[in-house]
């Protein structure tokens, strides 16, 4: 699932590459990807890109007359080609929509999942997208404070990993970075926030900032088709079940709960107890 560091790098790439470019044509290949049926993608033809930004795990591509919000979902991404490909790559994720620009470049919205998770919305303001309107504060934002963190986390009778992934509480963090934050903070993924003492909350707050902002800095400038691989390579515990913990050497374990999984180190995070 794309999370804020990779989506930030994607938004910066799109802003740099497309600002000043005009949309010459659009092709909606998978109709389920369009979430604003009253505002088709054809409304964007002739519009000029004026900028791009990240909002949580979404990209807001701003054009003259409208915004295109790309909600990446679980398996969505964007693919750029300097010119129209001669034929689709059978090994690549399928395109759900394509946008042709006046310099010949093609931007494709893709989805690698078995079901359509990516969404496209043509709106006047990104806040018209329901998922964006209810987003919580973003730890990557310079304005994010300890008070924002405490309001989202402190005293809640809910597992801390679930809170970190809850977009209405803290935006931009998903399964992978929540694992990384909690490992760095030495906190169990299943601990309830209300049960954490002040020292543990201090660590989770500090590592939320360090992990998210550090990853954004590390992903900046990486080609967008290499961001997933860069994210995977940078993980210390997420996706590393069965490997040694880089801190203590214990074996990283995987724990499945609800509809998600967590990777953690028993020695570092759960007092040696396997979940």
What are the salient characteristics of this protein?
21% strand; 275 residues; N-terminal domain of MutM-like DNA repair proteins; metal-binding; 28% helix; alpha+beta; 2 domains; zinc
Question: How would you characterize the overall build of this protein?
Answer:
The chain has 275 residues and is α+β, with helices and mostly antiparallel strands. The protein folds into 2 domains: 4-133, MutM-like, N-terminal (N-terminal domain of MutM-like DNA repair proteins, Alpha-Beta Barrel); 146-269, Helicase, Ruva Protein, domain 3, CATH 1.10.8.50. Helices cover 28% and strands 21% of the residues. It has a 4-stranded antiparallel beta sheet, with no helix packed on it. Residues 236-270 form the FPG-type domain. It catalyses: Hydrolysis of DNA containing ring-opened 7-methylguanine residues, releasing 2,6-diamino-4-hydroxy-5-(N-methyl)formamidopyrimidine.
The number of distinct helices, counting runs of at least 4 residues, comes to 8
Q: Helix- and strand-based class? A: alpha+beta
What is the class of the largest domain in the CATH system? Answer: Alpha Beta
Largest sheet: 4 strands, antiparallel
Helix content: 25-40%
**Which value, in Å, is the CA radius of gyration?**
20 Å
Give me the count of strands. Answer: 10
Write down the secondary-structure element order: HEEEEEEEEHHHHHHEEH
Average pLDDT level: 96
Low-confidence parts lasting 5 or more residues at pLDDT below 50?
A: none
Distance between the termini: 24 Å
Instruction: Enter the CATH topology name of the largest domain.
Output: N-terminal domain of MutM-like DNA repair proteins
Number of domains: 2
Give the overall shape: elongated
Catalytic activity: Hydrolysis of DNA containing ring-opened 7-methylguanine residues, releasing 2,6-diamino-4-hydroxy-5-(N-methyl)formamidopyrimidine
Pfam family, one: zf-FPG_IleRS
Protein name: DNA-formamidopyrimidine glycosylase family protein
Cofactor: Zn(2+)
């Amino acid at each position: 699932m794309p999370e804020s560091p990779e989506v930030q790098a994607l938004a910066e790439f799109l802003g740099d590459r497309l600002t000043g470019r005009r949309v010459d044509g659009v092709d909606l290949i998978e109709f389920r990807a369009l979430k604003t049926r009253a505002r088709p993608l054809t409304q964007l033809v002739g519009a000029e890109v004026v900028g791009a930004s990240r909002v949580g795990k979404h990209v807001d591509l701003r054009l003259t007359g409208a915004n295109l919000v790309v909600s990446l979902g679980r398996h969505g991404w964007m693919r750029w080609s300097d010119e129209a490909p001669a034929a689709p790559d059978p090994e690549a994720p399928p395109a759900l929509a394509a946008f042709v620009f006046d310099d010949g470049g093609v931007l494709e919205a893709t989805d690698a999942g078995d079901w359509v998770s990516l969404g496209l919305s043509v709106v006047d303001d990104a806040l018209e997208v329901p998922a964006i309107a209810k987003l919580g504060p973003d730890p990557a934002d310079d304005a994010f404070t300890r008070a924002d963190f405490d309001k989202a986390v402190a005293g809640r009778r809910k597992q801390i990993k679930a809170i970190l992934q809850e977009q209405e509480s803290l935006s931009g963090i998903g399964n992978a970075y929540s694992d990384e934050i909690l490992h760095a903070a030495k906190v169990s993924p299943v601990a309830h926030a209300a049960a954490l003492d002040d020292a543990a909350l201090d660590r989770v707050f500090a590592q939320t900032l360090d992990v998210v902002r550090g990853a954004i800095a590390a992903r900046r400038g990486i080609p967008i088709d290499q961001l997933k691989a860069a994210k995977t390579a940078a993980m210390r515990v997420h996706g590393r079940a069965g490997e040694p913990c880089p801190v203590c050497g214990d074996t990283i374990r995987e724990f499945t709960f609800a509809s998600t999984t967590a990777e953690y180190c028993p020695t570092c995070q759960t007092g040696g107890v396997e979940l």
